[in-house]
Design brief:
Strand content: under 5%
Radius of gyration: 19 Å
Mean pLDDT: 94
Helix content: 55-70%
Order of helices and strands: HHHHHHHH
Number of strands: 0
Distance between the termini: 65 Å
Shape: globular
Structural class: mainly alpha
Largest sheet: none
Low-confidence stretches: none
Length: 242
């Protein structure tokens, strides 16, 4: 018999917590879009800081996940199969956002960023402890190096922009690659010295979070179309009753 696969429910639960937070954030965003509430998601720190935290947890978990994959000897063919899923979903996000927000569609959002950064992080995994320093450089670089050449839609994915582009989601390689590098560095440390931080089961109340974390890409792709459909139907029904 094959040995049972090692469980990483604790890592999945952390990712799942980010999923729940993201879903709640997007639900309020959609309520705002349809006029049920009035919030400023673009300049109000209450919302902008939350977005930064959600993206940070997702990318850190992606780095942790790559550390687990490397430690378990995941081969490149399996990596590329998962990568293709992420990249394909990124293209669907671009197409869907162009239909709903033609003037601010998503050309390089979180899934686009993850697709690029996963390759970089996997190739640089042998750097070991140097990943901490590389991450610090990546996070700091956009604060000290900016140029108008990076402001176009064809180049702003790098991140060294002088102004934030008009788009519904923007997760450029810099500085966010640094967060994923830190996740990889922390994951390699944990797998070598504190495996219990990531491996093993979780208490019953957290099993739902672990399940959400394992299906994070599916939840990401499904929840917004579902919310939009339900809220659009609610708006149509309300207008019909007036």
């Amino acid at each position: 018999m094959r040995p049972a696969a090692e469980r990483f429910d604790r890592l999945d639960a952390l990712r799942g917590a980010a999923v729940v937070w993201m879903v709640a954030f997007h639900f309020v965003f959609d309520l705002n879009h349809f006029g049920f509430v009035r919030e400023d998601f673009y300049t109000d720190p209450f919302w902008t800081v939350q977005r930064t935290c959600i993206v940070s947890v997702f990318l850190f978990c992606a780095g942790l996940g790559q550390a687990v994959a490397v430690e378990q000897g995941q081969r490149w063919p399996r990596f590329w199969r998962r990568w293709a899923q992420v990249a394909g979903c990124a293209l669907l996000v671009t197409a869907g956002s162009w239909f709903i927000f033609p003037r601010s569609f998503i050309s390089f959002g979180v899934l686009h960023g993850i697709a690029v950064m996963l390759v970089v992080v996997r190739l640089t995994a042998p750097a070991g402890r140097w990943l901490w320093a590389l991450g610090a450089v990546a996070v700091a670089l956009p604060w000290v190096v900016q140029h108008p050449w990076f402001d176009t839609r064809a180049t702003n994915w790098i991140g060294l922009v002088t102004r934030k582009p008009v788009t519904e989601d923007y997760v450029p390689v810099l500085p966010w690659l640094g967060v994923m590098w830190w996740g990889m560095a922390a994951g390699r440390f944990a797998m070598a010295r504190r495996r219990a931080w990531l491996a093993g089961g979780v208490p019953a109340p957290m099993r739902g979070l672990a399940a959400a974390g394992r299906w994070s890409l599916t939840v990401y792709m499904v929840h917004q179309p579902l919310f939009f459909a339900l809220l659009a139907a609610s708006v149509a029904a309300r207008r019909a009753l007036l």
